[in-house]
Amino acid sequence: MKQAGPDLLCFSHLRWNFVFQRPNHLMSRFAQERRVYFVEEPMFEDGPPRLDARHVEANLTVIVPHLRRRAEPEEALAQQRHLLNSLVREQDIRQPILWLYTPMSLPIAADVEPSLVVYDCMDELSAFRGAPPLLRDRERELFARADLVFTGGQSLYEAKRAHHPSVYAFPSSVDAAHFAKARGQTSEPDDQRGVPRPRLGFFGVIDERLDIDLVARVAKERPDFQLVMLGPVVKIDPATLPRRPNIHWLGQRPYQDLPAYLRGWDVAIMPFALNEATRFISPTKTLEYLAAGKPVVSTAIRDVVTPYGDKKAVHIADASTFTAAVDAALSGPREEHVAIADEMVSATSWDRTWRSMSTLIADTLQSKRPSAARTGGDVPCSTT
Questions:
Q1: 8: which strand partners?
Q2: Which of 107, 191, 216, 374 could form a disulfide with 242 if both were Cys (CB 3.0 to 4.6 A apart)?
Q3: What are the C-alpha distances in Å from 174 to residues 161, 291, 347, 348, 353?
Q4: Which fold does the domain 8-173+349-375 belong to in CATH?
Q5: CA angle 371, 373, 378 (to 5 degrees)
Q6: For residue 103, how far is the Cα from the chain centroid?
Q7: One fold for both 8-173+349-375 and 176-345?
Q8: How far apart are CA 95 and CA 90, in angstroms?
Q9: SS3 284
């Protein structure tokens, strides 16, 4: 494999084995050209501090810090810095690209001398439940240090572009070939096979962004609708989830199994709450549902309304019109919908997003090393 530039140290608030989403898609692709170390948030246990490293793909290593159980915040930070410095020495990581998904990780890498700092702002984390009070201050520090800022959607780009001179919008993309499997003859998953139809399906994280009252209302208004809900429950009490015979909470399922579930759905739904936590989201599942060829009904999330609602690829509804929108999706012309969906899906891909990011990284690295460029030195090349 040709090394296309410095190693990449990625700091993520999401664990690698959580829902497979933006960090997984991008880091897997960057690992095709360079060593990638995906550093998760710490786990706390008895015993001395240590790092757990596991190779999940060629050139991609997941790093999990294990810290003392009752470590104070400053002690925990010092332990993580020490462990990271040891990793950098042992792996001979020199002037890496620092890639951050959370500003809270910035102090951990304080001793690392990066060639480039990238902030991939995929969500407005300060609006999420349980966000650290320091997060906004840390983000200001990160803006001051970052060379490039990427955002996970258009509305987030508009919110961040005044804070840094190099902000680029990279909305959630899609692995179209993977989700197009839902259009084929995939076998029915065992835990969905006995669910009657019509089926309304959702996959994703089940947290404060999901409007559980709307889920309950749809199930109550239309007992003939079967709601299949896939995903881990986090930050909310599972006991608060509505329980009705036609709501099926099936838990998290592997990414590779999602097309098989999708194939058996009649309508894919995005019953998001409209609150601070969803103000800037750009749901990855929108394009994934469309790639599967499914009609989609969503609440009025800004980055879903434009462009998907505007182009009639997604039905937009509120609590009072959601079931009517599902009926319209069920009865709408399938060929027309699939044609619109295919046009929107074909306009993007995670490969294309990765290549565009790689080009910006290569160009920025070159601009930071003008002497090497003038003398024909070793300057990482673009991957496009």
A1: 36, 97
A2: 216
A3: 24, 8, 10, 7, 10
A4: Rossmann fold (3.40.50)
A5: 100
A6: 16
A7: yes
A8: 14
A9: coil
> Do the strands 43-45 and 50-57 form a parallel or antiparallel pair, or are they unpaired?
unpaired
Q: What is the pLDDT of residues 266-302, one digit of tens each?
A: 999 999 999 999 999 999 999 999 999 999 999 999 9
Amino acid identity at 278? T
Q: Is the pTM of this model over 0.85?
A: yes
Q: How far apart are the C-alpha atoms of 99 and 5, rounded to whole Å? A: 14
Residue whose C-alpha is closest to residue 108's, from 78, 143, 132 = 78
d(CA 162, CA 177): 36
* Helices and strands of the chain, counted as H and E runs: 14, 15
Average of per-residue pLDDT across 108-119: 97
CA dist 141 and 146 (Å) reads: 9
Is the pLDDT score of 377 beyond 60? no
3-state secondary structure of 339: helix
**Token pair belonging to 265:** 């759905």
DSSP 8-state assignment for residue 96? P
Give pLDDT, residue 379: 35
d(CA 341, CA 319): 24
Nearest to 209 by CA among 86, 301, 147: 301
Of the candidates 250, 254, 251, 281, the residue with the CA atom closest to the CA atom of residue 178? 254
Cβ(80)–Cβ(71) under 8 Å?
no
Phi first, then psi: what are they for 163, rounded to 5°? -95, -5
Q: Please give the radius of gyration of the chain, using alpha carbons only, rounded to the nearest integer.
A: 22
Give residue for tokens 């969906």.
341
Short-list 163, 110, 148, 113, CA closest to 362: 148
Give me the helix-helix angle, 350-368 and 22-30, nearest 10°.
60
Report the SS3 class of residue 89.
helix
* Domain residue limits, the chain: 8-173+349-375, 176-345
- Helix axes 212-221 and 322-331, enclosed angle (nearest 10): 60
- CATH number of the domain at 176-345, please? 3.40.50.2000
pLDDT attached to residue 370: 65
CA distance 378 to 362: 12
Task: Report, as an integer, the average pLDDT of 196-206.
Answer: 97
